[in-house]
Structure prediction request, 127 residues.
Amino acid sequence: MSVETTPEARASELAEELGTVITEMDAYQTFEEAKAAVESDEELQAEIREFEQLRENFMLARQAGDATNDDLRELQAAQQELHEQPTMAEFLQAKSTIELKLQDLNHTISEPLAIDFGEKAGGCCQD
Prediction:
């Protein structure tokens, strides 16, 4: 006796398979390696903590109305310096690459689901 698969079960199955295939993509592997490199770099982790503290202080000052343009420039310079660290730069590039690939996949998945609500509305709104 064959068991029929419901559309919901099949969609779940395909989603799980897609997740597995994504983890096999070069872009995903590169992202994971770059992430691990950032996480294991103690110096970089210290710089990240310093930046996060600076950002937190800036946010608190901004909420209190005490933040200045100099504070903002200092924060931006610290962020730029952090992002220019080779390990961090590689991570950010890998992250951007995988995000773009995931956006493309999302678009491909969503395309058949799109509904032109303007067309469905009819009446005076159509040319």
Remarks:
- The chain has one domain: 9-104.
- The radius of gyration is 23 Å.
